[in-house]
Design brief:
By secondary structure, the protein is of the alpha+beta class. It has six helices and ten strands; from the N terminus they run H-H-E-E-E-E-E-E-H-E-E-E-H-E-H-H. Strand 5 and strand 6 form a beta hairpin.
């Protein structure tokens, strides 16, 4: 009987140590991996104290770059459109000028219209990185929704943008209709032509 009690105490002590260890592990994981919410990106951009608001008449430079009032250069945040000279394959495997089509889409959406951009920072080329709006329309999201660009970095993308890209891909919209080289891969292969 005495032997059994010692084993039970030992078992309880072991179980308690395992539980404490699991709790500490869980606590450490929560601290290092905060829970992500749907509005994570909106909060980080719209509540930044250094946020710069840029308003004016817009002109599309390419599928993901804008000029406002001919002076402010803006790179649309979170998205990466095919380069102007880039070609993709359509659903039948035929080459088409996806870069020109992506650029044309943005031209049609914003050219000579007043837009508002919210920028938390600039990139290495001194362009504002921004989310831009045409009245209530989020331009960045509209481009992704229509398959005219892909998410620039999936690791930092908002859940909403990931959802929109997934829907465009499933519906085979825009560049998702066939095959394409990711814009950053295209730029690597054509370094002399592209700087962004």
């Amino acid at each position: 009987m005495k032997k059994i009690r010692i084993n039970r105490k030992h078992s309880l002590r072991s179980a308690l140590i395992i539980l404490i260890g699991a709790f500490i592990g869980w606590l450490f994981d929560i601290t290092n991996n905060p829970i992500k919410t749907d509005n994570k990106t909106i909060i980080s951009i719209e509540q930044t104290s250094d946020l710069e608001i840029i308003e004016g008449t817009a002109f599309a430079v390419d599928g993901d770059s804008i000029k406002i009032d001919k002076t402010k250069n803006i790179r649309l945040l979170e998205i990466d459109a095919p380069e102007f000279s880039q070609k993709c394959l359509d659903k039948n495997g035929y080459e088409y000028k996806c870069g020109e089509i992506s650029s044309g889409f943005l031209h049609k959406l914003i050219d000579n219209k007043k837009i508002t951009c919210k920028s938390p920072k600039k990139d290495i080329y001194k362009r504002y990185l921004a989310i831009c709006y045409l009245e209530e329309i989020n331009i960045n999201q509209t481009i992704i929704k229509n398959g005219m660009a892909i998410i620039y970095d999936i690791k930092t993308a908002s859940p909403q943008m990931i959802k929109f890209e997934s829907e465009a891909k499933t519906a085979r919209l825009g560049i998702w209709q066939g095959a394409f080289l990711e814009p950053k891969e295209y730029r690597k292969k054509n370094k002399k032509k592209h700087t962004n």
